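Colleagues,

For the teaching module next term, I've prepared a clean inverse folding example: a structure given as tokens, and then the sequence designed for it. I'd like students to try predicting residues themselves before seeing the answer, so please don't circulate the second half yet.
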């Protein structure tokens, strides 16, 4: 015979919890305790920074440090190495920002009330800001050391446009396709840009696209904006592990 008391109805539990919360002031005017927008944005960035895989930070730092160190201590191809390394770390870094394949908290994040577009924007801001800081630091180191014949502005111009464009392309493909495909396309595009600095023939139009100019930055902004807008609108095509059919 079971002597355990029957649990109270769910309606009673909810009513009592709400009453207790109201008595303690927990259900006061939400607007009076609203967090300012800048503070909410900062809290979101801190939260997303903890959720991102540590390998994102470590890999970007390792590649940029190796590039700068090799250039400084060996004195070989400083601007070429920097111009190739910065776009590569940004393009691959943003490829895993969206989707269950490389997101350890994808299911938890998907259940939060925060818009997927806001979350993706926060993550892209973190990763691109980090990669940008690393590239600027490496450029400054090469400029100050005198290893490069170019000044800081010229060094930044070598990688800024390609870095933004490859990151925008990779982010859009990650949202619309999957991270693995985005990385593959980013590597293919990066390989062609690497050939552009050699004597191997590359179409002039491709060389023009992968330079720092208003057209490159505008195209990168367009690709990134499209990725943000499309985030959360249905499951990407052929995504493995999707929770809902496309």
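(Answer key — instructors only)
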């Amino acid at each position: 015979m079971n002597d355990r008391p029957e649990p109270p109805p769910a309606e009673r539990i909810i009513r009592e919890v709400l009453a207790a919360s109201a008595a303690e002031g927990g259900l006061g005017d939400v607007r009076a305790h609203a967090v300012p927008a800048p503070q909410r944005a900062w809290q979101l960035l801190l939260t997303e920074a903890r959720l991102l895989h540590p390998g994102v930070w470590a890999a970007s730092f390792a590649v940029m440090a190796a590039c700068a160190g090799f250039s400084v201590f060996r004195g070989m191809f400083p601007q070429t190495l920097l111009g190739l390394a910065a776009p590569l770390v940004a393009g691959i870094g943003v490829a895993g920002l969206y989707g269950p394949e490389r997101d350890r908290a994808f299911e938890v994040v998907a259940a939060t009330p925060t818009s997927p577009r806001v979350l993706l924007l926060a993550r892209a801001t973190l990763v691109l800001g980090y990669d940008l800081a690393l590239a600027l630091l490496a450029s400054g180191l090469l400029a100050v050391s005198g290893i490069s014949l170019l000044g800081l502005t010229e060094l930044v111009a070598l990688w800024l446009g390609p870095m933004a464009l490859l990151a925008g392309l990779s982010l859009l493909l990650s949202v619309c396709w999957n991270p693995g495909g985005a990385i593959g396309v980013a590597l293919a595009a990066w390989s062609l840009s690497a050939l552009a600095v050699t004597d191997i023939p590359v179409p002039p139009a491709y060389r023009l696209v992968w330079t720092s100019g208003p057209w490159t930055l505008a195209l990168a902004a367009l690709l990134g904006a499209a990725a943000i807008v499309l985030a959360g609108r249905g499951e990407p095509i052929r995504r493995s592990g999707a929770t809902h059919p496309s």
